[in-house]
Design a protein that fits this description.
This protein is an all-beta fold. About 0% of the residues lie in helices and about 35% in strands. Strand 10 and strand 11 form a beta hairpin.
Length: about 375
């Protein structure tokens, strides 16, 4: 493992984290409360946070510079970030914002513009982060539920994925009864929108499985059954499962998907990952608060075309994926890192953020 001089001493404590043989894990920056990531065309890396500041790590694909505040928003947390065209989009607790951007900008050239309101009740309660993604000419924002099981909800944006034009116009639900779809990712070839979802608590131990699903595959406004149904159409109480989506990928209960990114099928650049990783999905799993604690990690899900290489095994939520970044949790349950964001650079590098110590890692094949 290599270190840069720009990484503070705190990052040196995170020696437990590891990646498979053949890869190098390199901490390149420290951003307190680091959340989602997005890579600019010039190799700069934008970092959403649990505060009001969005950071940029200059030249993250080269000699990474010290992180600096790109913009401060009148809202927090500003967890979600996504670049598209001439805008940086930011998902905050009560709104979706856009900031004018040109390649190479390291401070905002204009004030953040609020283009859509979410959590319209104005009440700050549970699941306060908003993730954003753009695909097929539309902007998507995930908004989590306001408690474990809320009926009715505080407002109509809660427990949904919202769809809108890139300027915020025409916002409407794209998925409903989806408890906390905090990890949004776009599959590069199909441009399909996938969502990693943290499920409800207080069912039998080990249930429900966390999910990762192709939202775009479902016409209309799919129902993910948060309050009445889970897993392979298992009803809760006397509620039925009619019309509820069955997901394509599952993880163990309480693993908590926070961020996700697909690796390109035909990556360019010096640091392109080997063929088995191409087209697959990296999912940042934040770990559980339950006992015994489910460890934080980054999972890799192999794909075959537009679908996972393996179908769901309802008896084994670990069958479809393997750990790519591990070692965040010690045998006694203590944790040195909790992955949050994932992004792929234009040179093939993989970037991972975590919010226990605020470390941002760069992962590359060894010897290049």
């Amino acid at each position: 493992m290599r270190f840069t001089a720009l990484v503070p001493a705190l990052a040196l404590a995170l020696l437990g984290a590891s990646v498979p043989p053949g890869f190098t894990l390199e901490p390149i920056a420290h951003v307190a409360g680091a959340r989602e990531l997005t890579v600019a065309p010039n190799g700069d890396l934008f970092v959403g946070t649990s505060g009001s500041d969005v950071y940029v790590v200059p030249d993250a694909q080269g000699h990474a510079g010290a992180p600096q505040v790109f913009a401060t928003l009148p809202d927090h947390p500003v967890a979600g970030v996504a670049l598209a065209g001439d805008w940086l989009y930011v998902g905050a607790q009560f709104g979706v914002y856009r900031i004018p951007y040109r390649s190479g900008d390291r401070t905002a050239r204009g004030k953040p513009e609020k283009i859509a309101s979410v959590r319209t009740s104005g009440i700050s309660r549970d699941h306060v982060t908003t993730t954003v993604a753009l695909t097929k000419g539309m902007l998507f924002a995930s908004v989590g539920s306001s408690c474990n099981v809320c009926d009715p909800e505080l407002d109509a944006t809660r427990a949904t994925i919202q769809q809108m034009a890139p300027d915020g116009a025409g916002m409407k639900p794209r998925a409903t009864d989806i408890r906390n779809a905090i990890a949004l990712a776009v599959q590069p070839d199909s441009e399909d929108l996938w969502a990693g979802v943290a499920g409800r608590d207080d069912l039998e131990h080990g249930q429900p499985y966390e999910i990762f699903d192709d939202v775009s595959a479902h016409p209309g406004v799919p129902d993910y059954g948060w309050r009445r149904c889970y897993d392979d159409h298992r009803p809760i109480g006397n509620a039925g499962c009619a019309g509820v989506v069955i997901p394509l990928v599952v993880f163990p209960a309480y693993d908590t998907p926070i961020g996700a990114a697909f690796y390109p099928t035909a990556p360019g650049g010096r640091y392109a990952f080997p063929a088995p990783y191409r087209g697959g999905a990296f999912v940042a799993l934040h770990g559980s608060w339950h006992q015994p604690p489910v460890p934080p990690r980054v999972a890799f899900v192999p794909f075959a075309g537009r679908k996972p290489a393996k179908a769901v095994d309802w008896n084994d939520p670990g069958a479809q994926w393997h750990e790519f970044l591990s070692g965040c949790q010690a045998a006694d349950g203590s944790r040195s890192c909790r992955p949050t964001g994932v992004a792929v650079g234009t040179d093939g590098s993989l970037f991972v953020s975590e919010d226990a110590g605020g470390t941002v890692w760069r992962i590359r094949p060894s010897g290049r």
